Amino acid sequence: MTETAIIAQELQFHWASGTPVLQSCSFEVPKGEFWMLLGTNGSGKSTLLRVLAGLLSPQAGAFTIAPPVGFVFQNPDHQLVMPTVGADVAFGLVEEQLPYSQIRQRVSEALSAVSLTHLQRRPIYALSGGQKQRVAIAGAIARHCQVLLLDEPTALLDADSQLSLVAQVRQLIKERGLTALWVTHRLDELDYCDGAFLLEAGRVVDQGDPARLRHRLIQTSVAIA
How far apart (Å, rounded) are the C-alpha atoms in residues 180 and 171? Predict the structure, then answer.
């Protein structure tokens, strides 16, 4: 029987204005797999990710997620707070009150995992967008997060950096036995995932084989055009 890392059951969320965002949203992500979350703007993708990360509380329904959880924002400037690469990766370890030697080891291992060891002392402002996203991911790896939630992490990157990042995340997941849920609207990124969910009006309306979902979305786009 396949273990699950994320289980969402009948999640509902609406803003204070009463506008519904998530409506009876249910799905499961198998442990150790890389799944993507698709949907048009306003379908509830980012809100769902924030609920799973504990940043928003649903009005109804329930979910379980394997801790610890790492959240990667669309814009890395919203979560990188320290002046240098190494310091930022170490920042997330402060609350664990680890000895300095262990912190240094975790930072080194995390930067190695995202191929940024050579930039440990580099100022954050001097990094490219793709490098900043990898620093954010390294922070989650340093905290030994078992689940990564990534909210359109390639949205601000150029085409080459987009596919480089998604390929590296896939490699990390397979090498380390992690689980990831990645929000995207780029159909070419589906080539790298194990499965995908299609969200419409706050509920999962289709899921499974990414190639099939990609074909469905392309056909829908052609029909609308």
Answer: 11
Bridge partner list, 183: 37, 151
Quote the distance between the C-alpha of residue 62 and its chain's center. Answer: 20
Q: Which residues contact 34 (CB under 8 A, 6 or more apart)?
A: 169, 170, 173, 174, 179, 180, 182, 192, 193, 194
The DSSP 8-state label assigned to residue 66 in this structure reads: P
Return the sign of the alpha-carbon dihedral for residues 193, 13, 203, 5.
positive
Count H helices, E strands: the chain? 6, 9
pLDDT of residue 223: 52
d(CA 51, CA 49): 5
Return d(Cα 136, Cα 168) in angstroms, integer. 13
pTM above 0.90, yes or no: yes
What's the CA gap between 198 and 17, in Å, rounded? 26
Q: Give the span between the Cα atoms of 87 and 84, in whole angstroms.
A: 5
What is the per-residue pLDDT across 16-73, written as a single tens digit (0 to 9) for each?
Answer: 988 999 999 999 999 999 999 998 888 999 999 999 999 999 999 999 999 999 999 9
